[in-house]
Amino acid sequence: MIIWVMGALLILSFAIFAVYAMKGGNLTIGFFVQTIVWLLIYFLGVAFGVGKPFDFVEDIFAQPALTYGPTIIQIVCGAWFGRVLVDTGIAASISYRTAKVGEKNPVLATICMAAVTCLIFTSAYGVGSAIAIGVILFPILGRLGVPKRVAVPVFTLSIGAAMWVNSVLFVQFAAFYQDYKSPDGSVVEWGTHYLRFGIAALLVQMLGVIIFILINSKAIKNGTPYEVGDPDEQPTDIPDVPIWTYIMPIVPVALCIVLQWNAVPALMLATILTFAFTGHMKSIKEFGAMLNSTAKTAIGDIGPLIIMLLVLRFFQEIAVTVMKDFGPILTPLIPNSTFILGLAFCILAPLALFRGPLELYGAGSAVISIFMATGMFNAWFLFALLVVPSMTCISSCITQSWNTWSVGYTGLEPKTFLKNGVPVYWACTFPIMGLAGLLLF
């Protein structure tokens, strides 16, 4: 009887949290409160003979935070490299020269700028980097007459496409699975096994972006030029950096693929080379000032994210602990067909919007705990099951920080942004999930 009471309380608290997250509630606060609530529900079960007592301070709060250190290091290195790309002028130079190449053909220019955005964000990460690139690209697209309803989704979908090979976002999602004991021993980790899928997923999503641009080609060609932002605050000069430094955004990914390096040394070497190739290591004083400035800005950009991820680890740990007692009950209720589950999650992919039940950085964190509690599935399958809708959703969900900024900066109505962006990401979900089946598990 008590286990049914516990189940009812867990479902109720999950529903309340889902509504809170979907209404834009602070996720750090939400995950912390949810952790405490689920911990109390578990101890209620222990009092009635369900589950076993444990050192919750050590097991739920101390160890999960301490073991999250490697992930935080990768996030910091990725955010720093992204900021270095911006502050050394490489990102801006790529953007300006791309716009100049396609200025006589607005459709071609839009496609080129989508490709450049994707290129930059294969390594860059964070709302700060997105803003730095957006204040360059959006005014250019405005002067070309690209309608806002096209320009904004193209920008956010292109960033989202790059995230498939961005190690910073990968390690955040992989952390959900680091304690999962897969029945076949598979482990979710960064490397060539994942990257062959990630590159394919990137190409599929960028194909979706190009098709979206071509569908709207008439509106782009007949568009009326407009101003975005304050013209006096927009950079006007192309940064003076060597053209061959434009390859720097893909250097970390190339090192991971070709030399099979870990993401941290790949990002660190790429950062140092970027400083050197753009002339910022000519003197110790200049190099030190640039190093400190970029590191300070990068860490400031991701500070709230790191705290949220630590709290999320607390919730994940208690969720897995609680769900172990429900594993025998849940196993008969969950289909064991990977095809059926994959198709169902693709059809339901919009439920990832607004931090819903298919978004790992939302209510989906509890959903994945339910599937892991069964111990039935390959680790890479569970990764794809929730990460595919979560990752594609990043491109078009208004709760994503850089999407929120893009909509606000351009003055586009949020509902118009959703109306144009969601169908593209939803359509991409199906082939990307299919690729996961072929290349991951």
In terms of quaternary structure, the protein is single chain
Order of secondary-structure elements: HHHHHHHHHHHHHHHHHHHH
Number of strand segments: 0
Number of domains: 1
Q: Give the termini distance in whole angstroms.
A: 38 Å
How many helices? The count is 20
Query: Which regions contain 5 or more consecutive residues with pLDDT less than 50?
Result: none
| Helix share bin | over 70%
Radius of gyration: 22 Å
Strand content: under 5%
Structural class: mainly alpha
Which word captures the global form? globular
User: How would you sum up the major sheet?
Assistant: none
Mean pLDDT: 88
Structural overview:
The protein has 441 residues and is mainly alpha-helical. The protein has one domain (2-439). Helices cover 70% and strands 0% of the residues. It has 20 helices and no strands. The chain has helices at 2-22, 27-47, 56-66, 69-87, 90-101, 106-120, 127-144, 148-162, 167-174, 192-215, 217-221, 251-258, 263-277, 284-324, 327-330, 338-347, 364-374, 379-393, 401-410, 414-439. Helix 4 (69-87) packs antiparallel against helix 9 (167-174), helix 7 (127-144) packs antiparallel against helix 8 (148-162) and helix 8 (148-162) packs parallel to helix 20. The longest helix has 41 residues, at 284-324. The model has no long low-confidence stretch (mean pLDDT 88).
